[in-house]
Design goal:
Radius of gyration: 22 Å
Helix content: 25-40%
Number of strands: 16
Strand content: 15-25%
Oligomer: single chain
């Protein structure tokens, strides 16, 4: 059984507070706090969403005038003219569209539990994959599953495991640095003991340490995801069993007609510990070479291997756009209120002093062209049926939890994906990847009731995923009024000083993971 699925099914999911309200035909009209599977008397709750259009993301079919019947945390029936049990809470939603709950498959914890979890849920993100774990995020995960914290389902990575020298400054982030087989195996055993759901690998791992990590992870019952190491080819990453490759650059480097020269230059990169920006600056000309020597034959071979091995790619276009075009990077006025003042200061500093500084005009022009190339490359991924996961790399300036996923969906469509393909990358594929395809990712009986109710059809325009009416998480309804209260509470929380809650990880230009 897949590790993520096993841990999901074995951890007790009593659930968090019910947040309900709205226009009900029966039941309370204001927000409630109840056990997720029952009311105050212990009776299991039943909710009926009526007169909705249910979108089958896998097929693109729209099923109109449907009733979605939810009992406890599960969908028990979907169809027209369904009888609604006596005592059920009926929420009539004519003109609304129901999709599965969304997943952001590359996030980082950025703030406190008063900020990150509610921002995800308010944006319809009911599942997240946290790509660098620490005691705080493991605690959030466990509290959400135990029902003492309202938030999205969390699958949490290990600490980053990187080679020596690591790209990360140890003053900014704790990284497990491994130099050989013995230290690599010890690191895997350590992160399992710490509570990681899977192992996160990084760019500067050497081939021997990387292979040892893959082998030890199998022995320990863990999966592996993360960066493709600079010194390991993409076919080797896929063949070794790494489950997902984060970001585009490593895959794009493997489809050059001059791959031998690309690999030689990658091996020649010289760094000191924590010199993330030095790595990026040395990587830019290598990426430029690979982009200029793109080979359709190599792409067919390499991407075909990814498809055959079911190795997912998480493009994180939102992150790449900032790295490639920092001169066009600025906070979104609509989401600015959900960022702390000190976070904004850090982002401003990163963009101005790390992303933009000391870049000659030629490099700026090339990176703008690289952004165009990355969009074309995403089209190649979809054209070759490589399974895609939607992920944002929150922590990139000036991303905001939850809202960032809608940006990523728009960027995927802008790169050439259809709205249906983009939605699959945030629903169907994450469920399959996590080994939860039979309980998540669709609006069907026996699935967990993770749903988003939209005011408009996202298959017509992917921007309609932002038009959220209400959210259902593990059978608990977050009404429009409750959703607005959640956002208002976050806005208030970020105005208050907080001790010991530094930005945990994330971001570009020396902060990206």
């Amino acid at each position: 059984m897949d590790t993520s699925r096993r841990q999901f099914l074995t951890r007790t999911a009593v659930g968090a507070a019910v947040v309900a309200g709205g226009s009900f035909a029966a039941g309370p009209a204001s927000a409630l706090v109840d056990p997720p599977s029952g009311d105050a008397t212990g009776t299991t709750r039943t909710t009926a969403l009526t007169n909705v259009t249910v979108i089958d993301v896998a097929t693109g079919r729209r099923n109109s005038r449907q009733t979605v019947l939810i009992h406890g945390d599960r969908i028990v029936a979907v169809g027209r003219n369904l009888p609604v049990p006596r005592g059920a809470t009926t929420i009539d939603l004519p003109g609304k569209f129901v999709i599965p709950g969304l997943a952001d498959m590359h996030v980082h914890a950025l703030d406190t539990d008063e900020v990150d979890p509610p921002l995800h849920l308010a944006n319809g993100v009911t599942t997240v994959r946290v790509m660098s774990g620490d005691p705080m995020t493991y605690d959030w995960r466990d509290r959400i599953d135990a029902g003492t914290l309202l938030g999205p389902r969390m699958v949490v990575a290990s600490q980053i495991i990187d080679g020596d020298p690591t790209l990360w400054d140890p003053n900014l982030l704790s990284v497990l640095v491994v130099r050989d087989e013995a230290t690599a195996r010890a690191a895997v055993r350590q992160v399992k003991a710490e509570g990681a759901d899977f192992v996160k690998v990084y760019s500067r791992l050497g081939p021997t340490a990387y292979e040892a990590i893959l082998d030890e992870a199998r022995r320990q019952g863990l999966t592996v995801a993360g960066h493709a190491p600079d010194q390991v080819s993409i076919p080797a990453v896929a063949a070794g069993g790494q489950r997902s490759i984060e970001h585009i650059h490593a895959v794009a480097l493997s489809v050059s007609s001059q791959e031998a020269e690309v690999r030689r230059q990658l091996r020649a990169i010289s760094l000191r510990t924590g010199d993330y920006n030095g790595w990026l600056r040395q990587l830019h000309p290598i990426e430029w070479l690979a982009a200029g020597t793109f080979s359709s034959a190599r792409a067919a071979d390499v991407l075909g291997r990814l498809r055959h091995r079911n190795t997912r790619v998480t493009p994180t276009l939102a992150m790449h756009r900032v790295l490639d075009m920092p001169d066009y990077t600025a906070p979104d006025p609509a989401t600015l209120k959900y960022l702390r003042e000190d976070s904004l200061g850090i982002y401003d500093y990163v963009v101005e002093n790390l992303c933009k500084a000391n870049r000659p005009a030629e490099e700026i022009a090339r990176q703008h062209q690289m952004w165009e190339y990355r969009q074309r490359f995403v089209r190649e991924l979809f054209a070759h049926d490589v399974p895609i996961l939607a992920g944002t790399d929150t922590g990139t300036p000036y991303s905001v939890q939850g809202f960032a996923l809608h940006d990523e969906l728009e960027l995927l469509v802008g790169a050439g994906a259809t709205p249906q393909q983009a939605l699959k990358a945030a629903t169907v594929e994450p469920a399959r990847f996590l080994g939860l395809g039979d309980v998540l990712g669709s609006v069907e009986p026996r699935r967990i009731a993770d749903l988003v109710v939209l005011d408009a059809d996202p298959l017509n325009d992917i921007r309609n995923t932002r038009r959220i009416h209400s959210v259902v998480t593990r059978g608990r309804v977050i009404s429009p009024q409750a959703r607005q209260r959640m956002l208002a509470d976050v806005e208030a929380a970020v105005r208050n000083p907080v001790s010991g809650a530094a930005i945990a990880s994330g971001g570009c230009c020396g902060r990206g993971v």
